[in-house]
Amino acid sequence: MVDGGNGDGDGTRVVRAGLPEEEPYAPPLPGPVLAAHYHLPGDPPPESFGPGRDPRGVPYTYGRDNNPTWTGLERAIGELEAPGDETARTTVFASGMAAISAVLLSRTKPGDVVVLPSDGYNLLIPMRERLEGYGVEVRTAPTGGDAQLEALDGATLLWIESPSNPGLDVCDIRRLADAAHERGALVAVDNTLATPLGQRPLELGADYAVASGTKALTGHGDVLLGYVTCRDEELAASVRLWRKTVGAIPGPVEAWLAHRSLATLELRTARQASNALAVAEALRERPEVSDVRHPGLPDDPAHEVAARQMRRFGCVVSFTLPDKGFAERFLAALRLVGEATSFGGVRSTAERRGRWGGDAVPEGFVRMSVGVEDAADLIADLRTALDVAGRG
């Protein structure tokens, strides 16, 4: 996979993303900066995104405003979401929900219209309630079939989640973005599942690429993080002001861990995508398993569109087991797959998604995040667990 910006491939870019210029005897990735304040003589300089792309030139004033460790990570993510584009601006947050909130709540006011996916991340439901409480009209439509097109007239902001979580439907981002812009609406895309190596929403016409870095971006299940990347400086400034105002800042250690983890992003996501496809194909062979979904399956309903706009298809596989009891016996019998509510990690996890409520899925619906273990071992574990669950 080659980056059209500077000719470097993904594996090369991720190991060097956001690093400072080499200096004799200095570490390649400086350690986290732990600082609540900085030496600040005279009047503080005006906040500027330009110097923010070079950690040595940033006017650091206060720990809630900026931090050198954030700067390095923000530069790295910007290089991945929009390679070769110097206009890209990234703001990192304490979590993915903090990043989502920054876009939705900083850009809407009473009387505005927001279009959300009806099958997206389940915390979009309380977010919808919050927006409606502020006097914002919220419309919803499914991700598949570009159904959000029908809700765009008069919209202020379109929120896209593709692939959707947990159902793994896909929409044509460029088509929706063009239609939204024709109507004067901004477009945000939740890129959590795909990661910047799997999909680049800004290149597909989005105004915002938003993601939870907790998931595949960092990939080790030990960091809570979120980010927003956009090209428009005014939009970026609005997001960054929201972070400052509500204090939704990441810790410097978390930011440093995230930056360190980026070096293996290409290796991890390539292995996970390959494993996920193998797992999906194996699950389809079992009579007790139905509705296996993964965008990489050639006959998956999402595959045609996904193949046009995604560069790899992600680590998540969803499928349905006969009922709640069967699913819980299956999960309990797994040896290599942990039961957890997240995805994107190097260790495989799965959960019965219906236990949380909010997702319109059957009781036996399972979302599995496929890790980097040997595919043959994972498949053997799944088959054994299905056998155990079937015995009751």
Automatic annotation (TrEMBL):
The keyword ATP-binding does not apply. Its cofactor is pyridoxal 5'-phosphate. Residues 1-55 are annotated as: Disordered. It comes from the Bacteria. Keywords: Pyridoxal phosphate. Pfam families: Cys_Met_Meta_PP. Transmembrane segments: none annotated. Belongs to the trans-sulfuration enzymes family. This is Cystathionine gamma-lyase. It comes from Streptomyces macrosporus.
